[in-house]
Design a protein that fits this description.
Length: 716
């Protein structure tokens, strides 16, 4: 009896001591307690689990009272909880658990692994685990997290919620996790990020958001994460990085943006990351790396590979990258051009990977601008084996003849020629130096397709780069054989930018034809062409109802007839030459017919549908319509007069009923309020312009309205 009492009091005492120690985050254990615990948990252990003191590989630490139940199938898939109360490490992964119901206060639990189960939500009881350092919940089916979900776990350092179904996380879900270091949210269904999630996490160093559905990074979303070191955003759908999105990330070193939908390089935003060293930017649909895209960023390594759309690397796109050592620009299957002056002040660049691209040449100027270059991968490109490849050949030869010389070029045996035709398929190293002429004919690198099918008002944008020695001059040829150069260009719809880009604004149907880019030098000539078709808009107008003093016309042909933004109807008497009257068809006009009133009987009117783009007007289609004799019409109206009276009475009656219904519905259920926007507020301002039957046409929901319309139609 006495013994039991002593035992109990010892246990009570040690329990108190432990509590005291843990609540003060003391991380040592006295020898005495350890001896007493050596046969820890004998007898008290869930069936098929292991309960002992051991170093646990998944959680290496000082704490080692471990209960491991990996893969155990519990009755009803619920954890039985007959565990020693002072368990420190608990592994319940792969147990098919559907519910957690911790009723016990496991006040010493440091590590809980409940990954690979079937949990759909988090148990409120989880709050009792106040000593947790690591909580692993990956690969469950949790879809939402509520405010305060982890409250009480104030010492939590690692929270792994990866590969769940999370689509909703309330703003203060992570409130109180002031010591959190790693947050894993990858592999979920998150569409957006909330800045509130991160408010109380000054120590957060790693943030994993890969493989979600995030589409946009909003300004200041990471503002409070000044301690963040690594951020992974790969495998999302990011199309837009708002200015200021990276504000506050003053310690970020590693940023992974691989496999997103970014079409431009966030040049400005990168400057908000003063310590960024590693930037992964592969697999984004970027077309070009423009001038100063990466300017004065403190990067050490940058990757921009596997970009299926990348075609051009422009002049000075990498400038003042004083710490850049490695640049990966390989496996960009459309990359045809890299400017000789791409690199400025990249004095430490050592490794440049340009293999598996479609480059015709890499200038010796480019190589010479990189004093620290040690390795250059150029294999599997489409090399022009003319003077452009001369320096490559010379490097080869130097290395062969001088055993102490190390060429920067890697993969000599893989450098194959793609042009000129006589050398296609040959290895560069097998060609004699004399074969590589000191001049080389111009080679054009067009970035345009063979055909374009455009629509009036659009813009033609053709881009063309060239190589050759001496450097060729570029000109552009129009369908009427006129040659345009930057010099002979007067202002107007034609523009030439940086010699390499031809722009024709406000296309008309008459601009249809062949456009060519030409390059010329003393050593030759090259030309590349494209055929451009300019189509009229497919919109047509036709009379719908003709009377003595009014005409209703309708139009068709656009994919979305409701959206006629940019179109106008111009009309006047066809035998007069006075000004057209103009009716804009903007989006508020929710119908595709229009009635012109106050017309003169037996007169021909010309109606044109006109497309307006910026300052240009395009006549899309015109038609002449003659009004009827007024008498005929009056007969028509008298004829249906009785019908009309009945119709109007019915309409008023139904409107009244409708009004009552609306009133009742509003009274009864507030939820109906969401219907409101259907009755566009904008329509009111058009009331005075548009005849009634036009107004109501779009809102077929109202029964009262159709009778008015049917009146008009019954005359057909
Ligand atoms: C963990 O358990 C083992 C085996 O019982 C023991 O030898 C070791 O001292 C313990 N380690 C710590 C850090 O408590
Ligand atoms: C323990 O394992 C045995 C054999 O695999 C199994 O038959 C039994 O149902 C298990 N018990 C529990 C509680 O999972
Ligand atoms: C974990 O989840 C991921 C993503 O849902 C899935 O691809 C993976 O197969 C899962 N792992 C296991 C072992 O179920
Ligand atoms: C740039 O990065 C280097 C290390 O790559 C670091 O030593 C240096 O302090 C950084 N410079 C700035 C201005 O942050
Ligand atoms: C390259 O560095 C020099 C000297 O630091 C500087 O004068 C020049 O403007 C830099 N060039 C570019 C393009 O930044
Ligand atoms: C051989 O190459 C080394 C290293 O580049 C150079 O210092 C040396 O002058 C070269 N020797 C000859 C004979 O070109
Ligand atoms: C080198 O140039 C000369 C004249 O410029 C030309 O006749 C010859 O065919 C060229 N050789 C090669 C290999 O292109
Ligand atoms: C060009 O586009 C128009 C409409 O956009 C279409 O009707 C026509 O068939 C297209 N022509 C070709 C050659 O694709
Ligand atoms: C060819 O078209 C351009 C642009 O429309 C025009 O400026 C030029 O006068 C035309 N030339 C001829 C010969 O028609
Ligand atoms: C032309 O080049 C300059 C820098 O050389 C650049 O700023 C500009 O954006 C380029 N224009 C176009 C249309 O590419
Ligand atoms: C548009 O209307 C005209 C005349 O009513 C008709 O001939 C034409 O087929 C219609 N076009 C389309 C695309 O519906
Ligand atoms: C309409 O009539 C005017 C004047 O009679 C004529 O010039 C014009 O070509 C006609 N338009 C159409 C589309 O028939």
């Amino acid at each position: 009896m006495l013994k039991v009492r002593i035992d109990l009091s010892v246990q009570l005492f040690s329990f108190l001591v432990m509590n005291f120690l843990f609540s003060h985050i003391v991380t040592f254990e006295s020898d005495a307690t350890r001896d007493r615990d050596s046969n820890w948990a004998s007898g008290l252990c869930p069936e098929n689990c292991t309960c002992k003191m051991m170093d646990y590989p998944k959680y290496k630490s000082f704490f080692n009272k471990t209960v491991v139940c990996i893969g155990v199938e519990f009755v009803n898939n619920v954890f039985p909880e007959n565990v020693p109360l002072d368990v420190q490490i608990l592994d319940l992964s792969h147990c098919h658990l559907v519910r957690l119901s911790f009723k016990l206060p496991l006040k010493n639990l440091r590590f809980l692994d409940i990954s690979f189960n079937n949990l759909k939500m988090l148990d409120r009881q989880i709050h009792k685990l106040t000593a947790l350092r690591r909580l692993i919940i990956q690969n469950n089916s949790i879809s939402y997290l509520q405010n305060g979900a982890f409250s009480g776990m104030m010492f939590l350092e690692v929270l792994d919620l990866s590969n769940n179904q999370l689509y909703s996380i309330e703003p203060h879900t992570f409130g109180g996790l002031n010591y959190l270091k790693k947050l894993h949210l990858q592999g979920n269904r998150l569409h957006h990020l909330s800045p509130q999630w991160f408010i109380s996490m000054p120590s957060l160093g790693w943030l994993f958001l890969s493989n979600n559905l995030i589409g946009r990074l909003k300004a200041n979303v990471f503002e409070t994460l000044s301690g963040l070191f690594t951020m992974k955003l790969d495998g999302n759908r990011i199309t837009h990085i708002e200015s200021g999105a990276f504000n506050g990330l003053t310690h970020l070193r590693i940023l992974d943006m691989t496999d997103n939908q970014l079409q431009t390089i966030p040049t400005q935003e990168l400057h908000d990351l003063p310590l960024l060293q590693y930037l992964y930017f592969d697999k984004n649909p970027i077309l070009r790396i423009p001038y100063h895209a990466f300017h004065s960023v403190n990067l050490t390594m940058l990757t921009m590979s596997y970009m299926p759309e990348l075609k051009v690397i422009e002049k000075e796109s990498f400038s003042n990258l004083k710490h850049l050592v490695t640049l990966q620009l390989h496996d960009n299957s459309e990359l045809v051009y890299i400017d000789p002056k791409t690199f400025v002040n990249c004095s430490r660049l050592k490794n440049l990977y340009l293999h598996n691209n479609k480059l015709g040449s890499v200038s010796s100027v480019l190589k010479d601008s990189l004093p620290a270059l040690k390795t250059l991968h150029l294999y599997n490109n489409e090399l022009e084996c003319d003077c452009n490849a001369m320096w490559i050949k010379q490097e080869n030869l130097k290395e062969k003849s001088n055993t102490t010389y190390r060429s920067v070029l890697f993969g000599d045996s893989m450098l194959k020629c793609s042009a000129p035709p006589s050398k296609k398929g040959k290895l560069l190293r097998d060609l004699p130096l004399s074969d590589l002429n000191f001049t080389c004919a111009p080679v054009l690198i067009p970035l345009f397709k063979n055909r374009y099918n455009l629509s009036i008002g659009e813009e033609l944008h053709l881009e063309c780069y060239t190589m050759g020695l001496p450097f060729p001059q570029i000109s552009w040829r129009l369908p009427n054989k006129t040659i345009l150069r930057k010099e002979n260009l007067q202002s107007g719809r034609y523009k030439i930018h940086n010699n390499s880009t031809f722009i024709l604004k406000y296309l008309y149907e008459t601009d249809t034809g062949t456009y060519s880019c030409q390059a010329q030098s003393v050593s030759g000539f090259d030309v590349k062409s494209t055929y451009v078709t300019v189509n009229n808009k497919p919109v047509r107008i036709s009379p719908e109802y003709v009377a003595g003093n009014f005409i209703t016309i309708s139009w068709n042909g656009t994919r979305n007839q409701w959206s006629m933004t940019g179109y106008e109807i111009h009309y006047r008497q066809s035998d007069r030459s006075d000004k057209f009257q103009i009716i804009p068809l903007d989006r508020r006009l929710r119908q595709f017919r229009y009635t012109f009133t106050n017309l003169t009987p037996l007169t021909t009117y010309m109606f044109c549908i006109v497309y307006v783009f910026e300052t240009e007007l395009y006549t899309v289609h015109c038609t002449n319509i003659t009004t009827n004799d007024l008498d005929l019409n009056e007969i028509g109206i008298t004829h249906i007069n009785s019908k009309m009276v009945v119709g109007v009475v019915t309409s008023i009656f139904m409107l009244l009923i409708l009004g009552c219904c609306v009133f009742v519905i509003r009274r009864v259920g507030k939820r109906k309020d969401y219907l409101e926007p259907l009755y566009s507020n904008d329509t009111e301002s058009l009331m005075d312009v548009i005849p009634l039957e036009s107004m109501y046409q779009g809102q077929t929901t109202s029964a009262a309205c159709s009778s008015r319309t049917s009146l008009i139609q019954s005359q057909d």
